[in-house]
Design brief:
The complex is a heterodimer of chains A (315) and B (251).
Chain A: H1 7-22, H2 29-54, H3 63-78, H4 84-106, H5 111-131, H6 133-136, E1 142-143, H7 154-176, H8 179-189, H9 191-196, H10 201-227, E2 229-230, H11 237-250, H12 257-275, H13 279-293, H14 297-308
Antiparallel strand pairs in A: 1-2
Helix pairs in contact in A: 2-7, 2-10, 2-11, 2-12, 3-4, 3-5, 3-10, 4-5, 4-10, 7-10, 8-10, 11-12, 11-14
Chain B: E1 2-13, E2 16-27, E3 31-35, H1 42-49, E4 57-62, E5 65-66, H2 72-78, E6 80-82, H3 95-106, H4 122-131, H5 147-160, E7 165-169, H6 177-193, E8 197-201, H7 205-211, E9 214-219, E10 222-227, H8 229-234, H9 236-243, H10 247-250
Parallel strand pairs in B: 3-8, 3-9, 6-7, 7-8
Antiparallel strand pairs in B: 1-2, 1-4, 4-5, 9-10
Helix pairs in contact in B: 3-4, 3-5, 4-5
The chains are: A mainly alpha (315), B alpha/beta (251).
């Protein structure tokens, strides 16, 4: 087996993980919380990019699977008293099953029709969470999640998140660089031609959607425990829009771009909140910059700078 | 022995009948050209055979089995591949990956989530690239190749499916006479060495009459003549609607 990972990328990944392992040593609650949240959003954005960057469809409703993972894990842990070892996989499976159901309908469509249908389904999930008060807590949210004692604490939870996110990212990397991943890029590049080399393009897009939903569910399940609660906002379209912007900001044509975008957007939001209460205005500005000058995101920008300074681009 | 048959094949685009009751037979191993003026329905005919468009009426049989209404990817799997008149490649992938992905699909590995793409079918990819003369451009981005080379890549992608029948839609469209000669020699070679049955459309009459075993003439969605090059050349109706005009008008 030869997975073709460039030395630069593997060294960078190693350093990032190493730095994260050392984060709790700084003994800063702020830093630990910040890193935990960024890791969750990075995974969320990477999962969305399987649909956007790899299969070439824009989903406006990816928060649905994040929310389903979160609600499922929270409810199974708390209401039903399941141990984490069962509730966590069950939450992932539920997200994947929901994604499969939606994919069955959405993959009949492409482009804006696909995007609108994903949005519609996500609003359906939001409405269910909102109305099904007895199970989800409705608009008060599902609060008081029973976090298992072995990860109940800032530092243990941080390491739990780091482990799960690292494994998930590694799996996503393998999937995106597998025979499946390369075929998926072909589907993105030319749907018609992909069909004419013998690829069942609808099934490809469906499987990509399910994979993305499952990993969004992982992120959601972690986040529910981190917050000790799940709220209807996590299924709202604004949440889907935010993760979409993260993906675009980082760069959808690179595997790690969305994770970088997630970190960048998250930090920007934190810092801008210290100076202004007009985060949506700042966000609008960022969106304008992406659309007008950064079509390939931050990763694309870095590549352009590299090329300009005449270095060989081996990425 | 017919490898491909159509019966009463018809498509009606909301009142415009682009293909009208076409009965057509492709014999195993032959090189069969379809000619006809612009708008005669040649590309539509290909689209109907390959599952790109569903016919309004009639059916298509491949090797005796009905394939009408099957999805393109299923038809390809049966051994019927095609190329396109307008270049249809994977533009932002490398030339190498274009072929490799087609081979991955042929070997039913498209849904393998945990086998590395970079290790699949490498030797065969290189052989195919060498066959069409693209071995020097393997790592270039496909969309940045010259037009002629993209056409060669298009052919290689179609060949990667290891088809028994290959449909080529204007394989030399937009090529210079020299490029045309090279491309046609290549197609001819490959057809011989791989035992391919070839069905193609072409506007260059010297090519058509040079390499075809049989020729069918499509006019206003109907086949008005079918036979050996000599028979077609001497057919009075063909001369009237088509060959009587200047060669330029045929493009």
């Amino acid at each position: 087996m030869s997975w073709n990972i460039s030395r630069g990328v593997s060294i960078t990944c190693f350093i990032v993980v190493l730095l994260l392992v050392c984060v709790p040593l700084a003994e800063s609650r702020y830093l630990i919380d910040l890193s935990t949240e960024i890791m969750v959003y990075a995974l969320f954005a990477l999962s969305l990019n399987v649909i956007i960057g790899f299969s070439g469809n824009v989903s406006f409703g990816h928060a649905a699977y994040f929310a389903i993972g979160g609600y499922a894990n929270a409810i199974l842990l708390t209401t039903y008293g399941w141990p984490l070892i069962f509730s966590f996989p069950a939450a992932i499976i539920l997200s994947a099953v929901a994604a499969a159901f939606v994919a069955y309908f959405c993959t009949r469509l492409t482009d804006i029709y696909f995007a609108m249908l994903t949005l519609a389904f996500s609003m359906l999930v939001w409405a269910i969470a909102f109305k099904w008060r007895s199970v989800t807590g409705g608009d008060d949210g599902f609060v008081g999640v029973d976090v298992p004692s072995f990860i109940d604490g800032r530092v243990p939870f941080f390491y739990f998140t780091l482990t799960v996110v690292t494994i998930s990212c590694a799996m996503l990397w393998l999937i995106c660089h597998s025979a499946f991943g390369q075929t998926l890029i072909a589907v993105r590049e030319n749907l018609t031609r992909a069909g004419f080399i013998g690829v069942n393009t609808r099934m490809m897009r469906g499987v990509a959607f399910v994979i993305a939903g499952a990993f969004a569910g992982v992120a959601g399940a972690i986040f529910a425990m981190y917050n000790r609660g799940v709220y209807t906002e996590s299924a709202f379209w604004a949440e889907s829009a935010q993760v979409l912007i993260m993906t675009l900001l980082g760069g959808m044509y690179s595997f790690f771009g969305p994770a970088i975008g997630a970190a960048a957007l998250y930090l920007l939001e934190r810092f801008s909140n210290e100076y202004t209460e007009y985060w949506p205005t700042v966000l609008g500005g960022i969106l304008l910059i992406i659309v007008l000058v950064l079509p390939d995101g931050l990763v694309g920008l870095a590549k352009r700078i590299k090329t300009r300074f005449g270095r060989v681009n081996n990425q | 022995m017919n490898i491909l048959d159509t019966n009463n094949l018809t498509i009606d685009f909301g009142g415009f009948i682009a293909i009208n009751n076409v009965d057509f037979a492709l014999k195993k191993g032959e090189k069969h050209a379809i000619i006809g003026p612009n708008g005669a329905g040649k590309t539509t005919f290909f689209n109907l055979i390959t599952g790109h468009l569903p016919p309004t009426k009639g059916d298509v049989k491949f090797d005796g089995n009905p394939i009408t209404g099957l999805a393109p990817h299923k038809i390809v799997k049966l051994g019927l591949a095609r190329s396109f008149q307008r270049i249809n490649i994977f533009p932002r992938m490398t030339v190498f990956e274009n072929i490799q992905t087609a081979l991955i699909a042929r070997d039913n590995k498209s849904f393998k989530l945990f086998i590395p793409a970079s290790a699949q079918n490498c030797q065969e990819t290189e052989e195919l690239l060498a066959l069409v003369g693209l071995d020097g451009e393997a790592l270039e981005i496909a969309g940045e190749l010259s037009y002629g080379k993209q056409k060669q890549l298009e052919l290689a992608i179609s060949l990667a499916e290891n088809p028994s029948v290959l449909l080529l839609d204007e394989p030399t469209a937009g090529m210079s006479p020299q490029e045309t000669a090279v491309a046609i020699a290549l197609v001819d070679d490959v057809a011989k060495s791989r035992n391919l049955t070839l069905l193609f459309t072409e506007h260059d009459m010297s090519v058509v009459f040079g390499i075809s075993d049989r020729i069918s003439v499509l006019h206003h969605g109907e086949i008005i003549a079918s036979g050996s090059p000599d028979e077609v050349r001497n057919n009075s109706e063909v001369r009237r609607v088509y060959l009587g005009e200047s060669d330029d008008a045929a493009t």
